[in-house]
From TrEMBL:
Gene3D superfamilies listed in its UniProt record: Ribonuclease Inhibitor (3.80.10.10)
Sorted UniProt keywords: Cell projection, Cilium, Coiled coil, Cytoplasm, Cytoskeleton, Flagellum, Leucine-rich repeat, Repeat
Intracellular or extracellular location(s): Cytoplasm, Cytoskeleton, Flagellum axoneme
Source organism phylogeny: Eukaryota, Metazoa, Spiralia, Lophotrochozoa, Platyhelminthes
Protein known as: Dynein regulatory complex subunit 3
Family the entry assigns: Belongs to the DRC3 family.
Domain of life according to the entry: Eukaryota
Organism field: Fasciolopsis buskii
GO cellular component: cilium
Amino acid sequence: MVEMNVESRPISAKEDIIPSFETFQTTRIEHLYGTREPTVISQALLRAAVYAQGPKEEAGTIARVEGIEYNGVKQLALNFQNILRISNLDDFVSLTKLQLDNNIIEKIENLEGLVNLTWLGNPAGMEPIYQMYVCAFLSKLEYLDYKRIREDMNCWLLFPATYREKLQDTCRMIFQFGLEEYQKRTVEEACLRDSLREVKAADRKSGMKLISEFLDYKQHVLQRLDAISDAQTSIIEEVMSNYREKIHELWEQLMSNEMVIAEQLEEVCKEFERNIRDMLGYFLENCQNYMAKCREAAANFHERLVEATLPYAERLAKSDPNDTEQLLFPDRETMGNCLSQSKDNQVLRIDQCEEWIIKRANAWCENLIASLQKEEVMQRHTNRVTEINLFIDSQRTELDSFDLSTI
């Protein structure tokens, strides 16, 4: 067997600045003995961690020379590094698993895309609602501290979704209930319209019958006048007097029928008004109950939001005064005011929606009743009386214009 002698290659300047795997491991051991000071996630630490979990031996040497792109790194171990704050992870866009256990991190930030997170041993992990807090801020997280996240651990994340679902379900119920009630009111109105048409048709038929009988009588009078000689003046005057009386009787009959029909139509419209107002009242009462459910959902959401947020505000008050988040929410009172204003805005929107529904429904009802009163009662009655008077006046005018000498 031929023995090959391979000379060791000198370390390049680029390799020399990259911490070795052994050095990175030593920092973990030093922390266990309390020999390291609090630190941050520096570029040197990130390079050491990336290469420590990368390929070894010759492949590792090549990787150290050519470099490893951070955007392709999917998991990273930064445990036992005495890290105080999370930073410089912006380039790790594909990172899904991160080990940060046994550090001194107090705040979770810049980890929105994580699927797997190890956090044991950090001060933030000592909080009673730590797991729910993490799940609320990291929506994609599936594993926390080597355990799969259960649905009840992720309940804080469900609060906004549950609130939206309750509002959407309530709105759908209002819409469906509104359609059903609108169909009932439409049927009620259609029945009224049909009844009014039947009553008016019967009234017109009765009126036409009376007029037809009168016209037959008129034709008989004209024929009788043709048969009477001019010398029989007294008979002619008697016939004309009876004819005049017949015209007056026709007017009385037509007007009497019209008054009865007008009273009936007015009573029917009033009964319809009572029914439609009762139906509308039932609809609005149920709408108000649905809106009360919306307010209850908003109140529950506000309570859960306060429970999740105010402890965060307390921790934020203890952080760096120059922190951007602390500038947005300087104290617990300010955050409480923001939450209270948010709830007031939600309730105001619900109140406005309820007011809009009530206003539109009442306006529809008033317009419908007013149109019925105007068209079916007042206007129809006026037109019918005018029609009767015009016909009677035409008959009287014709009677007064008779030239007895030509008969």
